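Appendix B. Extra example for self-study. Work through it before the problem class; the solution is given directly after the inputs so you can check yourself.
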Amino acid sequence: MSTTDARAARTAAPGREGGTDWLAHAVLLLGTVLFALPLWIVLMGSSHDAATIGRGEVPLLPGPHAAENYAAAWSRGTTGVPVARMLWNSTVMALCVAVGKIAISILSAYAVVFFRFPGRNLVFWSIFITLMLPVEVRIFPTFKVVSDLGLVNTYAGLIVPIIASATATLLFRQFFLTIPDEFVEAAKMDGAGPLRFFRDVVLPLSRTNMAALFVILFVYGWNQYLWPLLVATSEDVETVVIGMVKMIGSESNTDWSLVMTTCVLALLPPVAVVLLMQRWFVKGLTETEK
Amino acid sequence: MERKTVFKGRLLPYLLVAPQLLITIVFFFWPAGQAVWFAFLRQDAFGIRTSFVGLENFQDLFADPLYLETLRNTLVFAAGVSCIALGTALLLAVMADRQIRGAGLYRTLLVWPYAIAPAIAAVLWIFLFHPQIGMLGRALNGAGIPFDYKLNGNQAMLVVILAAAWKQVSYNFIFFLAGLQSIPKSVLEAAAIDGARPAYRFWTVTFPLLSPTTFFLLVVNLVYAFFETFGVIDALTKGGPGRATETLIYRAYIDGRVNLDLGMSSAQSVVLMLVVILLTAVQFRFIERRVHY
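Solution. Structure tokens for the complete assembly:
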């Protein structure tokens, strides 16, 4: 049965379980609230002063201190590193991870699919096998390599090791295999070489896939924790997720309202990217990882 | 699968794969190889001499009651996170798959936590469960139930499980919903016409058809719980109180970073590698068998 038929059958019987609609609404509302409540607490908390939070009042309505909290966090933070600096570092990291991974993956997938060359299978499998070991597992040896190369506390050291993985390559390979042979033949007939074909046909066709991967990889890069914790110890390259957890440090003198403010600032960019590009992202995610 | 028509080129394909291959060799194969090699070495107390000790690091590891306790913690943690995250996501996906008003809006509101970093999820949960400043933590203490995840190991485990699972529900939800939407509705209609009740229909028709998705997600969730939850634990409990929430990856970090014991830390990395390889191998086998169901 084709998907069109399935869709037709689906719309042909609207509300066939009409009696239990209220149950669906109740469950989904509960789920929505469970997700939204913690976010609401930090959002509201970020508009109160530290004393209110410290007393444990847990305000659920906005307070008068939002502007000063955000200004204080933005320009000085609590650990000596302004949150603006951390946000910049996270942005650089997330963008470079996303763009870098897409760039190297689309090139290698193109070579593996559209060429026959000695060692092609070896290349494919050595890239493929990186799926097996997440960066967390080989963290210290990777750190040693990065430090031998003198890349500790640099953007390159923070970003490049994160790029070594195969998910994007596999997605592009899968997609390239579906490009009809006629396209390649036509291009050859017109005398277009492989680079021309890549630029004029393959890149435009891959736009949706690139958008989906961008969302997934941006979030992945932004949310890295263990790797930056090891390799980015200087404040010049400290990311916002690490910086925020550091602010909690010793609990007795934590400025909780600034922690909440930083928390909001740290989660806003990736959430915005996911929400704005939701359609591509959901499609891309379910296709990449299966 | 192969293409029939391809381009000719001697040098070009190598140039195209060079960047990724180079990064993979330098930052993947080289360190992974070193991890395996270090696992068989031991440094003396001053870090001057290094000698080959064979499997001694591994023997020490599995003879260490603390490591076995960490292993037990990890299994409890991973099982808890996977069950809660999968169960909740499946329930929400089944509900969101129905033809109800506002289904699209619900989906958006359930998808956004995908973007939250594990460490940020942990901080959000501090404001729920902290005994002094957390909403629920205060309420529990106020109601006469002593609650402090920084003192009570079981409560600490509960909080890290909940925070880690909370973050993973969205991911599972997206996949379950995609899985549900690919089930031909005619199958369900047929069961409905035969008079099967909704719950019965779910367990006899929908759930078995969803099993490839469920299995895929189970492996992903286990890998998530084993490795990516490092941020949750570091931000919430730092493995404490005592060692109550210390998982394998956290212990490997402590041994490598704080105790500077490269041999033991590498041996632990190798154990973790074997776990991931095992999980991935099982997954590939299963998916292969399931392709023609």
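Self-check: The longest strand of chain B covers residues 41-43. If your reasoning did not lead you there, revisit section 3.
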